[in-house]
Amino acid sequence: MRIIIQRVKKASVTVSEKIVSEIGQGYLILLGIEDADTQEDINWLCGKVARLRIFADEQGAMNRSIRDIDGDVIVVSQFTLHASTKKGNRPSFIKAARPDKAIPMYEDFVRNLEVELEKKVQTGIFGAMMDVALVNDGPVTIAIDSKNKE
Q1: Architecture of the domain defined by 2-144
Q2: Which UniProt keywords apply (predicted)?
Q3: Burial of 114 by CB count in 10 Å (0-12 exposed, 13-18 middle, 19+ buried)?
Q4: For the chain, which terminus, N or C, has the lower number of CB atoms within 10 Å?
Q5: Active site residue 14
């Protein structure tokens, strides 16, 4: 399971010209799920997201978590995070989980993150063509892969 966390001043997701999610300060998380992912990957990543300290404290050091600042979160499914570009010029998405596995895992990730953060998490619409808008704060963008825990 791979995520891209973008620290944002604001972010939104629009589908068919309608805003479906919108937040102020917090995280825009792109979530890629592969066939090998399990509940353990979800649990580990959600804990990591909740504890990650990438917001500034009074001295300007990255020392505060999303919980510390009471920030908001949008999670967007992003199967292209598992693109393989080793051969040719057209990416292969063979490692990306199919919807029958990915949708329940995406929903579990969101629910688990809501428990960790003790608040509602916004989402995109799985499988939809989405326009994702953000103002990256910093910019700060961090990639985390649950297969690289150690």
Answers
A1: 3-Layer(bba) Sandwich (3.50)
A2: Cytoplasm, Hydrolase, RNA-binding, tRNA-binding
A3: middle
A4: C
A5: no
Residue 121 DSSP code:
-
Domain ranges of the chain: 2-144
pLDDT in tens, the chain (150 residues): 999 999 999 999 999 999 999 999 999 999 999 999 999 999 999 999 999 999 999 999 999 999 999 999 999 999 989 888 888 898 988 889 999 999 999 999 999 999 999 999 999 999 899 999 999 999 999 999 998 877
Tokens encoding 81: 């995070």
Residue with tokens 């404290």: 57
| Residues 6 or more apart in contact with residue 64 via CB below 8 angstroms | 53, 54, 55, 56, 57
Task: Identify the active-site residue in 14, 38, 80, 141.
Answer: 80
Owner of token pair 């704060």: 137
Output the 3-class SS for 22-44.
EECCEEEEEEECECCCCHHHHHH
